[in-house]
Structure formats: C-alpha cells, structure tokens
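PROTEIN DESIGN WORKSHEET
SECTION A - STRUCTURE
LENGTH: 218
TOKENS:
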C-alpha cells in the first residue's frame, strides 16, 4: 500500500478546518491519514505550501525513515524525497543493501516551509511550535506502520520522534529504545551531504550515513 495522496500536484487542499480530537482516532489506514493531512490547519505552514506531502511506502515496513520537511521539489510533486537530497538518499539506501519499496519514508513536518527570494523558494527550518503541531501525524504513521526501527535524519526528525531536542553527535552510532517498542537510529539529513559535496570530508560523511542505514538493516 502506498500512503501518497491521489490528489494531483495542481490541486490545493480544501482546508475545511483543523481536525478535532473526536475525528483523529477514526484514522485506521494510511489512505485515510493522507486525506486528514490534506485538511490540516494545525500551524500556519499550510497557507503557503502547494500541498501537503504525506509519508509513503510499505504499509508494514520494518524500517521508517523520518526527514525534516518537504523541499521545493517534494512540495510540487506531493511525494517525500524526490529532489536532489532524495537522490542522495536513494543511493545510500542501495549502498546499505536496502530497497526503497520496503521502507516507509516520511517527514517530521508535512508542509514546505520556505523563504521567497525572487523566483526561488529557499528552505527554512521548522521551529519548535511547527514541529510539535505536526507531530500528531508522525505519531499516527508510527501507530499504523508499526516500524521496528526508526531512522531519524536530522535534529528536527529526532525532536519529532522523541519529543526532545537532542544532538545527532550524542546519539549517533547506536540504537535507542522508544516508548512504543521501536528503536531509533539518529543520523544526518541527506541535505547535509548536498551542502558539503565539494568538501574533502564528503566521502567520509557519506560513508558514515550509509553505515547508519546498514545498522538499521541489521
């Protein structure tokens, strides 16, 4: 099953209103979750994004990858990790001996946050309020998919998964038990590898990223 909404990229959600507590417990499938996310007005980000970008992948995936938020390409396509960072992620998934179709891939924040610079839309980091308001969707994804391993890619993902602000350096390289029985692996976001692509340290950082995904596979 694929969680991606069938809504075309050109269609904007109807924004009927923020979901109430009595509606959310009725979500029993990834398709229903994607429909509920389309209507989300829990924080102001929905006003400026093209559309919501729900998670997608195997409905009972053993491994869930969690990123920060959609980028420009993802906002247009309505799918997670389809832009430049997504291509780097795909390469690392293959290098780690995994298959994307066997994973569930999502983001901590489901709408693209950006700053307009001329014709360009530049990524802007979600703030703690936005992360917390969007956390309910990741929590429901976790309930539905029930992954054994959650790979939190970047500080925003770590905060959304754990509810706490923690550094990658303190957590990286080992498994961390979560309250729901899953285990978390903390690593960098693949967009970091994009930013340092001309840096001499890039091969080492890419190798460490693949190592973290191999840990998830094992």
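SECTION B - SEQUENCE
RESIDUE ASSIGNMENT:
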């Amino acid at each position: 099953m694929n969680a991606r909404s069938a809504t075309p990229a050109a269609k904007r959600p109807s924004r009927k209103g923020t979901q109430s507590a009595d509606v959310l417990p009725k979500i029993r499938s990834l398709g229903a979750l994607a429909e509920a996310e389309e209507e989300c007005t829990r924080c102001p980000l929905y006003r400026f994004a093209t559309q919501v970008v729900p998670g997608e992948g195997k409905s009972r995936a053993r491994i869930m990858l969690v990123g920060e938020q959609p980028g420009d390409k993802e906002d247009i396509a309505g799918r997670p990790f389809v832009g430049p960072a997504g291509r780097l992620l795909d390469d690392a998934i293959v290098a780690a001996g995994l298959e994307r179709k066997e994973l569930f891939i999502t983001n901590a924040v489901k709408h693209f946050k950006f700053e307009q610079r001329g014709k360009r839309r530049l990524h802007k980091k979600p703030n703690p309020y936005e992360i917390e308001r969007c956390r309910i969707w990741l929590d429901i994804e976790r309930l539905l998919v029930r992954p054994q391993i959650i790979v939190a890619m970047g500080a925003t993902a770590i905060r959304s998964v754990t509810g706490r602000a923690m550094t990658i350096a303190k957590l990286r390289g080992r498994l961390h038990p979560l309250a729901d029985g899953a285990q978390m692996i903390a690593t960098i976001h693949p967009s970091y590898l994009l930013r340092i692509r001309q840096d001499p340290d890039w091969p080492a950082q890419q190798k460490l990223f693949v190592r973290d995904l191999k840990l998830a596979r094992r």
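SECTION C - NOTES
The beta strands are 56-57, 63-67, 104-107, 114-117, 120-123, 149-153, 176-177, 183-187.
The first helix runs from residue 30 to 38.
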